[in-house]
Amino acid sequence: MELRALLYVLMFLLTLFLYFIKTRDHKDPNKRGRLPPGSMGWPYIGETLHLYSQDPNLFFAAKQKRYGEIFKTHVLGCPCVMLASPEAARFVLVTQAHLFKPTYPESKEKLIGLSAIFFHQGDYHIRIRKLVQSSLSLEAIRNLVADIEAITASAFDKWDGGLVVNTFQEMKKISFEVGILLIFGHLEPHFKEDLKRNYSIVDKGYNSFPTNFPGSPYKKALLARQRLRKILSERKEKKFLEKELLGCLLNSKDEKGESLTEDQIADNIIGVLFAAQDTTASALTWIVKYLHDNPKLLEAVKAEQKAIRKVNGEGNRPLSWSQTRNMPLTSKVILESLRMASIISFTFREAVADVEYKGYLIPKGWKVMPLFRNIHHNPAFFNDPKKFDPSRFEVAPKPNTFMPFGSGVHSCPGNELAKLEMLIAVHHLVTNFRWEVVGSENGIQYGPFPVPLHGLPARFWKESTSSNALPPHDDLTISYPLA
Ligand code: HEM
Ligand SMILES: *[C@@H]1O[C@H](CO)[C@@H](O)[C@H](O)[C@H]1NC(C)=O
């Protein structure tokens, strides 16, 4: 409560401050070109809070309706150009990416670590990205199927019995474990526990108000971050295989033969955990909701997955990589969930020079925001956009209209892993469980990624399957030669 009061006071001061710089902004000479349409009206408290705590999309959609695909505004005191068309997003993220650098609030950069991949451009970015990509390539993740399946199955089994669980929080456990697997491979349990507990303190700090008061969640998070860094640097002594991300980072040498520093390694590991956990958990939670809300579709997905389960001796044999690559309906459900939920609703860049786009000037230092969600919900690209309809993905979306994982040099290197986690989770969910969503409120919460209200409280029951009645394993190998 006190924090909230403080927040309001700070917002008030910020507003006063903006009021004073506003005049300067307006006098800003735009001799080189005209600025995009839109109002720079100083952001009053309501608007700024609205953007960050409630549904930001109403804010964007209203602006887009009024001004079109490109418009200017103020966000948290920064002059900003918002872009709501596929061409404009491509311009900023792909073709002219060198003119737009990534930009994040300083408080977030400090928590994740200044050397993390997201914050960089140029040679250093390319170097880290290659390493991250190699551990996330199809060749690498195909070896993770069995482990991901085991992680998923054991997490789901704990839900059995109809207790109310917070679906999002439970999904976070799965995406965290998979992140750890990707980075370290198999870890000793006590080490994993230390990581998990310290990381969860960092996690709480991401969404808290960034004050350095002792005892504030943000301050605690910074301290936990230092402990994580220490844990990771002690880890250096251990031998790692090249295939895990930590091994890739530890063994990397640049052309001069220089290794990465401990800070660079720690920041990127914390960064990947951050990038991987809430995003994937949010997507998984939305899938549970959409399947629940569309019973006919759920039946069809069940049929697809039960056929696979049957081939695998009613779950006695693990999923294979090739099975995960051949789940046509489930794959479309995942794509449609990503479109509907648009987990990363928009992103930020900053112009490093004056840039001209379609006759408009984007001045140096201004922020630009490609609005993914608005593009995903534009009826010109996705017919009847509010309808959950996986069959729309039977034909490929128009170029640059579908960007759940971003686009260009900073696009998500974890997209195949995320999809793999979702396929495996859906397989286990629909073949083993029935579930009920608790409460009838439909709503979205932003934390900062969109999640169904209250994390989608739900009850799960394991369905009794015929597997108990099946003959022993050996016989199955004979009865199902397809596997
Ligand atoms: C459904 C789950 C996920 C979604 C929707 C998602 C979405 C995105 C998006 C939109 C970006 C680009 C942001 C920008 O351009 O500003 C991004 C970047 C990134 N993602 Fe993901 N992501 C997901 C899962 C993952 C996973 C599982 C990992 C790793 C294991 C991961 C690692 C990263 C990294 C390292 C970057 C930064 C890349 C760079 O700056 O070059 N993501 N993600
Ligand atoms: C964080 O990690 C350290 C090991 O460096 C461990 O001693 C400590 O218990 C962990 N903290 C929490 C809150 O789990």
From TrEMBL:
GO terms for biological process: sterol metabolic process. Heme binds at residue 412. One of its GO terms (molecular function) is iron ion binding. It is an enzyme of class 1 (oxidoreductase). The chain crosses the membrane at residues 6-22. Keywords: Heme, Iron, Membrane, Metal-binding, Monooxygenase, Oxidoreductase, Transmembrane, Transmembrane helix. Its EC number is 1.14.14.137. One of its GO terms (cellular component) is membrane. Pathway: Plant hormone degradation; abscisic acid degradation. Pfam families: p450. It catalyses: 2-cis-(+)-abscisate + reduced [NADPH--hemoprotein reductase] + O2 = (+)-8'-hydroxyabscisate + oxidized [NADPH--hemoprotein reductase] + H2O + H(+). Belongs to the cytochrome P450 family. This is (+)-abscisic acid 8'-hydroxylase.
